[in-house]
Design a protein that fits this description.
Layout (H helix, E strand, L loop, with lengths): L24 H11 L8 E6 L5 E6 L23 H4 L3 H12 L10 E7 L2 E7 L4 E3 L3 E3 L4 H4 L22 E12 L6 E4 L23 E5 L12 E9 L11 H17 L3 E10 L1 H7 L31 E3 L10 H24 L13
Parallel strand pairs: 6-12
Antiparallel strand pairs: 1-2, 3-4, 4-5, 7-10, 7-11, 8-9, 9-10
Length: 372
């Protein structure tokens, strides 16, 4: 019967054997960022107060079975236990969920909502795909608001928000996440390779799923700082703007995808940059539509039409009392900082409305009312 050998001696870098195909350190980092599914760990936080008025937080996670070792994960100067490189990309969400649970919130994962329940002219709860009903005084929807207008949460709430027409949608994108060797151009962290056609590349909506010739390409060299530095292989994110055609998945064929790749490469080649990819993950508007239904792949909600266009976006309150909105498709706009602000606005509206409702609670009046 085979036995497992154990040792109390410390492990060193020389003992590390990388997984097959991930010999390069950057390939290991890229694979972890894109494909790793970090386990959900239950942690206990210990805070140590320091003499200068600061503090140190230690997050302890005990194994389910017998411990076979002791691992210390240390974040960078401005990081935390929620930093993606400590716990994976889900670390931030896990930290928020942990805070919510500490405040008494029940977090349900993988619970698909079939519809919002409506009664007496207000949202009263949700019905899950399992048939379970959850009553609620307030519901905050954090997906694209157009999903409500498209009746994806039931026909009773479809009129609670304005519908975004196809012409009013923002742009989508075609992206490539890759590990590649770069030659011929001194990349920085952020790089923009402009199209020779200028703004005309985005005017032609009749193109459908077909790429523009030599489009503008954004390249994020994630392992570089402000000074160019040659690397044997590095993580890159390439982004090309595209129209929101995600609902036409059958048109996003392998040939169309290859044309987008050739089109982006032609822009980079014209500017002197050549890439030798080792691993590539491509995402199209059809993929974004699958992840965010009713968007057609649009990444930013309604498209911006001027300096005041953010004011025309849906606010936190909907036309249906008890139903609220947050996320990148509503005011003040897309992006993590804006979406976070929308969450704060939604929370403020919920608290205001609940306080107002409780102050004006119904009262029974005995007797009759004279009208004459």
């Amino acid at each position: 019967m085979p036995t497992a050998a154990t040792s109390t001696s410390p492990r060193t870098l020389a003992d590390f054997v990388p997984a097959r195909g991930l010999a390069h350190p950057i390939a290991q980092t890229a694979f972890a960022a894109v494909a790793r599914r970090a386990p959900a760990l239950a942690v206990t936080r210990e805070r140590i107060e320091t003499g200068d008025g600061d503090f140190i937080d230690l997050d302890w996670s005990e194994p389910a079975g017998e411990a076979r070792g002791f691992v210390v994960l240390v974040h960078g100067l401005e990081g935390s236990a929620s930093s993606p490189y400590v716990g994976g990309m889900r670390a931030l969400a896990s930290a928020l969920a942990r805070l919510a649970r500490d405040l008494g919130v029940t977090v349900m994962l993988g619970a698909h909502v079939d519809r919002v329940l409506v009664g007496a002219g207000a949202a009263r709860g949700v019905e899950l795909a399992s048939g379970e009903r959850l009553d609620a005084e307030a519901i905050v929807f954090c997906g694209d608001s157009n999903a409500i207008a498209a009746s994806l949460l039931g026909p009773d709430v479809a009129r609670a928000v304005p519908r975004t027409s196809p012409e009013a949608r923002s742009l989508s994108a075609v992206t490539w996440a890759m590990v590649a060797r770069c030659q011929g151009f001194p990349l920085l962290h952020h790089n923009l390779f402009f199209s020779v056609r200028g703004p005309a590349e985005l005017r032609d909506r009749t193109r459908g799923v077909w790429p523009p010739p030599e489009p503008t390409v954004y390249v994020c060299a994630q392992d570089r700082g402000d000074a160019a530095q040659p690397l044997d292989g590095e993580r890159l994110l390439l982004v090309v703007n595209a129209h929101a055609t995600g609902g036409r998945r059958n048109e996003w064929t392998e040939e169309v995808k290859r044309r987008w790749e050739r089109s982006a490469v032609s822009t980079l080649a014209r500017c002197g940059l050549s890439l030798s990819p080792e691993a590539v993950q491509m995402t199209t508007p059809a993929d974004f539509q699958e992840r965010f239904p009713a968007t057609e792949g649009a990444l930013y909600g309604p498209r911006a039409t001027g300096a005041l266009s953010t004011l025309s976006r849906p606010g936190a309150r909907t036309r249906l009392p008890g139903l609220y909105l947050a996320g990148g498709s509503v005011h003040p706009g897309p992006g993590v900082p804006m979406a976070a602000l929308s969450g704060r606005l939604a929370a403020a509206r919920v608290l205001e409305d609940l306080a107002s409702t409780r102050r004006s609670s119904r009262a029974a009046i005995s007797g009759t009312t004279s009208t004459g």
